[in-house]
Design brief:
The protein is mainly α and 419 residues long. The protein is 66% helix and 0% strand. It has three domains: 42 residues; 236 residues, no CATH class; 73 residues, Orthogonal Bundle (Arc Repressor Mutant, subunit A).
Length: 419
Amino acid sequence: MWSLWTGLTEIYSVYLTDFHQWNTGCPEARNQSNMLQWLSDIFWQERLWFPEGLGWADLEDRDGRVYAKAGDLWVALPIAFVFLILRQIFESTVATYLASLLGIKETLRRNAAHNPALESYYCHSSKYPTQKCVAELCRQSGCSEKQLQRWFRRRRNQDRPILIKKFREASWRFVIYLFAFVAGLVALIDKPWLYDLEEMWKGFPTLTVLPSQYWYYMLELGFYFSLLFSVASDVKRKDFKEQIIHHVATITLISFSWCMNYIRAGTLIMFLHDSSDYLLESAKMFNYAGWRKTCNYIFIVFAVFFIITRLVIFPFRILYCTWVYPLTLYSPFFGYYFFNGLLLVLQCLHVFWAALIIRMALRFLPHNEIVEDERSDRDETDDSEEEDEERNGDIKKHGALRNGYTTHNNNHRNHRKAH
């Protein structure tokens, strides 16, 4: 952390020096255009992003050698939109068909009756009315307290994602993560830095870009952009904020490592992360399908891979070769601190998710229980159970459910706990 603070102090001193020079210059030149140019010059200063004695001129294409350029990153945006389109097609066709083969069907839920007063409170105040507000809401809506509680249960249930939506999302991510893992393996299998990590800095920063590295980078960056664009419509879990931080940190890390030609280190880091994510998504798929033992076995394999790759290889091998080993080759500079700072953010997220994974494993291993995602909102099952009790009471009273709906077990408690 001290070295990171040193890097931040360095860029701040550079900022103050250049701002003083700009501010004491010709007044006519201090306009908005020059201000933007000044900020750009400050940001891209060679002494911030390169070891001493090296600069942008060393990364100019020459003699058939092609280097990474910041402008290449714009390709990731159309790739991200292609991913979003492919996802819609995949989820509505392949994932839906696969769900039907595994017996996952959409279940009907009774919608809450239209009530402007209750809807306004639900959207702007709280999804769970306090006891003090119940009387006032009953007066405004003309409902009894029992009807009020029933309305809020049904309204909350409307917002909860159905099982098939979760299955579709997990299926899409499984396919993409598996594809990314295979692509990374193809791109790295014959590279010396996969087996000797110190090779990633050999010749840095004048490292040419291979076509396999180019497409591996652009596809990965485009995919994480698509995840960031779709996060608002995806199933929200308890680690929603951590997911946002992860996506932003990953996009920044991929972009920065590309611009600064940390490509060898970047491909290794991406490949390491892709090596276990597809296992988690496949475990979710079997979980939603009710394949209890298969889900548990895959989850055990995933937990082992995750802990080995994220808590052993990443901090003790990758971080060592990005934090310690480079200091034997050149003096530290701000880009060095910034790159490793982003890796530390990822490592903190690794520890957070590892704690959830270990807690899940300890929960189901001794009693052979079904794997339940710690990130899921447990109220999903609680409220559904209340609705089941309510439906059973309606059946006893009237012999059939009101509103013409048939009985469905929305929480899948006995067959498949929602992941």
